[in-house]
Amino acid sequence: MTEPWWKSAVVYQIYPRSFADTDGDGVGDLEGIRHRLDHLAWLGVDALWLSPVYRSPMADFGYDISDFCAIDPLFGSLDDFDHLLADAHALDIKLILDWVPNHTSDQHPWFVDSRSARDAPKRDWYVWRDRLPDGKPPNNWVASFAPEPTWTHDPATDQSYLHLFLPEQPDLNWGNPEVEAAMHDVLRFWLDRGVDGFRADVVHCIGKDPSLPDDPPEVAGLPHSVLHDEPLTHDLLRRIRTLLDSYPGERMMVGEVYLLDIDRMATYYGDGDELNLSFNFLPVHSPWDAGIWRDHLARTEQALAPRGAWPTWVLSNHDVPRHRTRYSGWPNEPADAVRTEARARAAAVLLLTARGTPFLYQGEELGLLDADVPPDRVVDPGGRDGCRAPIPWSVDERHGWGAPRDVEPWLPFPPEADTRNVATERADRSSILHLYRRLLAVRRGSEALRLGDEELLDAPAPVIAFRRTAGDDVCTVVINTSGETHEVSLDGPHRVVVRSDAVHAEPVAYSGVVGPDQALVLRPA
Ligand code: TEU
User: Fold this and answer.
1) What are the residues whose beta carbons fall under 8 Å from the beta carbon of 24, sequence distance 6 or more?
2) pTM of the model as a whole
């Protein structure tokens, strides 16, 4: 049986504002992505996920959408989108879009109608409630980004509307069948254009018990979006899955299920009839520590395997500091540039060899750190600008941005952009970029790494060791998260096919030791 493409794919997340700019306004665009497809094909990724490119007032940089079926002029046009999709497919690269089902922009015509009158046709498309008799919000939920209530009172109709995120992002009422139908139409619009699937933003939040019960007091300070876990969502997901499966070509959905509990997260795969994939965010909030990671590997298998659910792995995205930044001087040491580089390389080995679908975030393959964003350039209400810095493409001062209009990019470049840029790293075979490319090539050539079983091996405490097996194809991965050398003995002689800290040469014999902060991919000799 052949497995669906999204099980063996490596997905590359593009944050379009910061990827590549062709019109010189300092903000990336669809044509910029299209012009760089050759680079992504050279790197060897299988699929792209685009963060939102729809029409948006940009209060949350595109996650506040005023038209789900239009491209924001900042990014280009629908024609540009079709052109990008066609060119990606011609290179055998899949394209998935961000679908934001939980909320719209407050400028969306649906919400403009909804807020206009209590008896407006779309009043019930959003979640409106009376304030409590004492004037307090309808419940105790806390919004993301600022520790404020998830409710904004609208004097025009003397009711409050629900927003788990910004007041500019009112929550849709999926309890209304018209909303469900309209959001299915959005999926169809893009599926008909040929997209291969969706990353569904905070999809665990869409089903809501109409009584909107208070969060328990012991967690009441946390954003409600990381607590919401409502049985109604599963019915909605099954119907979404039916829609996706009605299209040919294995269209898929990966859900952003932001629950920091793997067993609860796992329920969003259903019995193979809900999400195809779900992000697992626990590792994103963990230090680079072998014991903790062995636990993540084991717990992920325990939670997902009984359901036949396929894991995902992610280290960085547009919402959190980059892992290279997180791993510098964390947990308890001062920042050390040499160890940070070594850890970022070892982490790449883990991300691309653990059992599951890996998601890379643009720029991690360049080893980028977060940008230092001075206070007068902070733009994100959630404080996430650092990881959203523009990708440096070339050595020159503008690093490939700004031409022909010479507008400065919307955010400052990351540190060391003179050397950490695509041109310099492509020319240097010892760069982290070449390590990612090598790992992607080895993975592509190995059924064991793409789809095989995973077995944790005994190893010294600071070492993660596991074996991936598919029939005769066997790969062993050994990752040292400490600054000391460790012996790791394996059954029989092995050869090194990837070494995190060296240029790839002809395979050499495995000596039985793994160096400080080093990671190795091995095959039986
Ligand atoms: O993020 C949802 C989310 O819950 C977190 O990533 C968020 O940073 C956290 O709740 C802060 O408390 C998704 C998108 O990835 C993010 O960019 C959007 O801002 C958000 O949804 C709203 O659409």
Assistant:
1) 402, 403, 404, 405, 406, 407
2) 0.98
